[in-house]
Amino acid sequence: MGRNADGTRAGRFFARRGRKLAWSMTSPSTIVVAGGALAAGILLGLPALAIGLVGAGAYAVKVAASTFTGKDVAALLNPEIDMSGLRSPYLDWVERGISSRDTFEQALRRLPAGPLHDRLAGTADEMDEVLAGLTRVARRAQGIDDYLRQPTVVHIQDTLSTARARLAETRDSEVWPERKRTVESLEEQARVATRLDTVSDKAMSRLESTITSLDQLVAQLMEIQLAAEDAEATDTAPPVDDLIDGLHAVRDAVAELDPHASELSPEEREVEAALVAGPPRTEAQGLQT
Length: 289
Known about the structure:
The protein is mainly alpha-helical. It folds into two domains: 1-79, no CATH class; 84-288, no CATH class. It is built from twelve helices and no strands. Helix 7 (123-149) runs antiparallel to helix 10 (175-229) and helix 10 runs antiparallel to helix 11.
């Protein structure tokens, strides 16, 4: 979804980075890099035009590297939210989030130009961050659901009970170690499944609370927008700080469950490893019958 040049995405983006861009263009390190490139061109005996192009290229690369991170470039390009493969109810959460984001940006665009608009300009980008994180959390929750639906996981407790009973009945000293290892493997699988179930519950709760919070933020922004158009409504509008703080809180809450947004704890790494490995396939599957 594109934005026009007046404002909404590229304008906000460069407004946020303008000061850093100005500094990068005149910083000593940039001058040194450009000068070094020019000197190298002279030493190599390049034509004057080529020397100028080399210096300009080095200058442009250094300014871009100093100003924009990979995350900045991704935000500028604004790739569409990838909902491919999502099913209900996970798809429903993302679609509701997109609807809230779009309403939020429409209200933001209706704000008159001025300090209030400038102060809230960056919130649309944060809303996009929240939506991208929400989509990843939804996809992860669906992956956990797929894992937990597999027969070997659904019946893991029954399989474990059967394996434990057979171990208790074993008298053959050569058979006992093998059955013991089977029980231990199934116990580990059951523990991982329990962990995944807990993470799934947390993810679903986070999806629901995020959508509710986004709807609340949209309502707050619309109140602020109406107050900006009606001086008599100023006293009843929510403080701008409350909206910004609320958006920060939502973003941080989503990041807690977003494996792309923060360093994972050992427990979360275990969840990711289980999802990558897929449901267990063990020699004990025959114990289910």
